[in-house]
Every structure is written in C-alpha cells, then in structure tokens.
C-alpha cells in the first residue's frame, strides 16, 4: 500500500523545485539587456582583451548588461552610440581607442583612463570625462563598463562611426 501523505509531499517538493528552476532561469534571462543579445553576440561569455600582451578576461551577458547600465548612467550624455559630442573626430570606435596614447583598446588601459582621464595623445588630463574613483565605482563595476564599451566597439553596428564629416 502507498502512503497518501508521502505522495502529496513528494508532489509538492517536485512542484517547488520546478517553480524555483523556472523563476530562477527567468530572472537570469531578464537581467540581460536586449541590446546585448541583439547586437553584441554575447549569449555565452565573451573574451575581452585585458592588456597589450593579448591576455583576455571573460564577461557574461549579465556583466555586459550591467556595464551598459553604468555607461548609460554616467557616459551617455557625451557618448551616445559611441560618438564623442565633446570631440567628434575621436569616437569610441575600436580604431580610435587603439590610436589613443596609451591605447585604450584593452580593458586595463581603458580602466586606467576611467581612473585618471587623459586627452587623446596622453599628454595632459582632461576635464571633459569625470574621474571614476574607487569610492564611486568598484573595480569590478568599472571593468564591466569597460567590457561593454570594448564589446560594443567590436560588434555593434554604427558604434562610434568614423568618417562622419562635421
């Protein structure tokens, strides 16, 4: 004979597990920005160039989504779509980031720029970009923002479009 009470407990446990799996998966998927899915091709973790030696670091779609949020909150006024409203010839395109002194086409150098913003040729500080201090944004958060910028520069159509005459 079977125990009716035991069967009901078993069914309830299965339903709870099923519900946790469903809702946990949905919340993780909801954390990914649709722009990240559509344009940055980041459904699986992507490798972002870490330094000039070519080492890389992986970032998930959730990381890039968080980076996009930080970019929107702090940089979008001057850098919508990777443009540069303060200095239009110097966009956030990969070629322009690479051409900076030091090159800003890798995460370490881009984070160093955020921490101590310099003009394009590296000869002096710039006051157009705000300094991102450790008190304001943690290393992990600023790296996610940098990873978003670099991935957008690699993959997004029209990000930091070059060759637009003013």
Can you describe this structure?
- The protein is mainly alpha-helical and 166 residues long.
- 50% of the residues lie in helices and 5% in strands.
- The chain has a two-stranded antiparallel sheet with strand order 1-2.
- Helix 3 crosses helix 7 and helix 6 (107-115) crosses helix 7.
- The termini are far apart.
- The relative contact order is 0.15.
- Residues 23-29 have low confidence and may be disordered.
What share of the residues does DSSP label as strand, in percent?
Answer: under 5%
Number of helices in the DSSP assignment: 7
- Oligomeric status of the shown chains? single chain
Outline, from the CA principal axes?
elongated
Q: How helical, in percent, are the residues?
A: 40-55%
Task: Encode the helix/strand succession as letters.
Answer: HHEEHHHHH
Q: What would you call the structural class? A: mainly alpha
- Low-pLDDT stretches are 23-29
Distance between the termini: 85 Å
Global mean pLDDT: 86
> Widest sheet: strand order?
1-2
User: How many whole angstroms does the radius of gyration measure?
Assistant: 21 Å
The number of distinct β-strands equals: 2
Largest sheet: 2 strands, antiparallel
Tags for this model:
5% strand; 166 residues; mainly alpha; single chain
In short:
By secondary structure, the chain is mainly alpha-helical.
List the helices and strands and how they pair.
Layout: H1 4-30, H2 34-39, E1 46-49, E2 56-59, H3 61-74, H4 76-79, H5 94-99, H6 107-115, H7 139-155
Antiparallel strand pairs: 1-2
Helix pairs in contact: 3-7, 6-7
């Amino acid at each position: 004979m079977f125990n009716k009470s035991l069967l009901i407990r078993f069914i309830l446990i299965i339903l709870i597990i099923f519900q946790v799996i469903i809702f946990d998966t949905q919340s993780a998927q909801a954390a990914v920005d649709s722009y990240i899915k559509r344009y940055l091709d980041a459904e699986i973790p992507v490798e972002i160039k870490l330094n000039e030696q070519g080492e890389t670091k992986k970032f998930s779609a959730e990381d890039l989504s968080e980076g996009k949020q930080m970019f929107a909150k702090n940089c979008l006024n001057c850098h919508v779509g990777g443009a540069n409203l303060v200095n239009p010839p110097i966009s956030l395109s990969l070629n322009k980031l690479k051409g900076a002194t030091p090159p800003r086409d890798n995460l370490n150098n881009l984070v160093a720029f955020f921490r101590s913003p310099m003009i394009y040729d590296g000869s002096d500080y710039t006051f157009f970009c705000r300094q991102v201090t450790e008190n304001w944004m943690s290393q992990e958060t600023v790296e996610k923002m940098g990873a978003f910028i670099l991935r957008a520069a690699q993959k997004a159509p029209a990000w930091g479009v070059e060759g637009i005459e003013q």
